[in-house]
Amino acid sequence: MDDNYSGDSLGGFFQKHSSAESSVSASLNNAAAFGSARRSITFDHDDTGTASVETNAPKKKRVSRMTGGGLRQFSAKVCDLLESKGRTTYAELADYIMSELAGNDSETATSLSEFNDKNIPRRVYDALNVLEALDIITRVKKEIKWNGIPDRKMDLEGMKAECVRMMNRIGRKTAYLKDLEEQFADLQNLMFCNKELLKSGNTHPGGFSLPFILVQVYYFVIFCWFA
Amino acid sequence: MDDNYSGDSLGGFFQKHSSAESSVSASLNNAAAFGSARRSITFDHDDTGTASVETNAPKKKRVSRMTGGGLRQFSAKVCDLLESKGRTTYAELADYIMSELAGNDSETATSLSEFNDKNIPRRVYDALNVLEALDIITRVKKEIKWNGIPDRKMDLEGMKAECVRMMNRIGRKTAYLKDLEEQFADLQNLMFCNKELLKSGNTHPGGFSLPFILVQVYYFVIFCWFA
DNA sequence: GTTGCTTTCGCGCTACAC
DNA sequence: GTGTAGCGCGAAAGCAAC
C-alpha cells in the first residue's frame, strides 16, 4: 500500500525543493495512477511560468497545502501582532511572522523559508485587507494602526479600572462612616448619662443650668422658644 | 467598443479528471482554447505572454482587475450581512452578495455575473477565514454564527449599568455621611459647651446637671419649650 | 475501501499602482 | 523596480453511495 499516511497537518512538511524534474512527473503519475492516495507531499518545482505545454513533463503546481495553515493561521498571527504593537508596518509584520514560522522546522528550513518568503507576504495582505474592512486597523501610507476590535479592549479595561477605583472609594467612605457611627454612639451615651443624672435628682437645684438648645432642622418651619 | 467581456472560463467546469498524465496538459489546453475572452471590466489585454500553446488564439488569463473591488469590499459586505443575520450559511451569504453586486450593471450583466459567480464565492471564503481567526464568527458544520466583535456590546453595556449603579450607591452613602458629620459636629459642640461651663466654675461641684434638650427635626413643625 | 461529487481554500501568477 | 492585491486553478477535505 501506498503511503497514505495521513498525517500532516501541522506538519507542514512539504518541501518544495525545486530541483529535479523527475520528481515531478513522478508526482503526477502518482496522483493519477494510485489514484488513491492523494496528497503527496509535494513536489515540484517550478517553472513557473505559465505555460508550458508541450509534450511531456508538465509540471504541476506544488503544493500540498499546509493544511490549516493558510489565511486563518496568518490572520490570527497578524492580529495578535498588530494588537501588541499597536502601530507598525507591513514589512515588520511580514518579517516577524516569517521568522516565527521559520523557527519550527528541522531540515526543511531552507525550502520552507523559500516558500514562506513568497506565500506569507501575500497572505498578510489578505488578512490586512479584511481587518481594514472591519475598521479594526487603519492604514495610512504604509503605516498600520491597530484600532482594536472597536473599543472592546480599551473600554473594557478602562471600565474595569474605573470599577476598581470606585470600589476603593466606597471602601474608604465606608470605613469613615463606621468611625463616625461609633463616635455618634458615644455621644448618645453621653446624652443618656446626662439625662439620667438629671432625672436621678442628683443634680443640684441651684446648680447651674444650661438653658441650652440645639436645633437642627432640615426642611421645615420650626418654632421653638423657651423662657 | 469592444468590450470584450464575455466568456470566461468557466473553467472550472471541466471536471476533474484526474487520470492520466495528460491531464495536466489537457487542462491547460482547455483553458487556453476555450478560454478566450474573459471579462474585463476595463479592458483587456492582449495576450501576454505566457502560455498558450498550440493552435489558435488562446487567450490567457487576464482579467483586468476591478480595482478596489476585492477582498476588502467583500469582507465589509460579508460582515454586515453576518451581523444582520446573526446565523446563516455560506451559500446564503454568497448568493446574497452576488445578487447585490449583480444589481449595478448595465450591459455587462451577464458577463459580470458569470465572473462573480466564480470570484465572489472564493473571496467570501477568504473573508470568512479571517473573521473566524478573529473569533468574530464561528463555523459549525456549514452554519456560520456571528459572535460579533467579542462581547464588546454586552460588556460595555453591562459595565455602564454597573457604573451607574455604583455611582448611585456612592451618592447615597455620601449623603448619609454628610448627615452624620453634621450631627457629629453638633454633638461635639455640645460637649465643648458643657466642658466650658464646667470649667468656668459655673458648675456646682456636687455634680452638674444639664437640663438640656436636643431636638432634631426632619420634616415637620415643632414646638418645643421648657421652663 | 473506493468511486465520485461538492465544499473549502492553499497558493501564486500577474495586473496595477507608485 | 517594488509594493499591493485581484483572481482563479486545482488540490484537499468532506460526504455519500457503492
List keywords for this structure.
homodimer; 227 residues; mainly alpha; Arc Repressor Mutant, subunit A; three-stranded antiparallel sheet; 51% helix; rod-shaped; disordered N terminus; DNA-binding; WH-like_DNA-bd_sf (chains A, B); membrane (chains A, B); TF_DP_C_sf (chains A, B); transmembrane (chains A, B)
Description of the molecule:
- The structure is a homodimer of 227-residue chains.
- With 227 residues, chain A is mainly alpha-helical.
- Among the domains of chain A are: 65 residues, no CATH class; 76 residues, Winged helix-like DNA-binding domain superfamily/Winged helix DNA-binding domain (Arc Repressor Mutant, subunit A, Orthogonal Bundle), CATH 1.10.10.
- Chain A has 5 helices and 5 strands, in the order ααβααββαββ.
- Chain A has a 3-stranded antiparallel beta sheet with strand order 1-3-2.
- In chain A, strand 2 and strand 3 form a beta hairpin.
- In chain A, helix 2 crosses helix 4 and helix 3 packs across helix 4.
- The longest helix of chain A has 48 residues.
- The N and C termini of chain A lie far apart (119 Å).
- The N terminus of chain A is likely disordered.
- At the A-B interface, helix 1, helix 2, helix 4, helix 5 and strand 4 of A face helix 1, helix 2, helix 4, helix 5 and strand 4 of B.
- Strand 5 of chain A pairs parallel with strand 5 of chain B.
- The structure holds a DNA duplex (18 and 18 nucleotides).
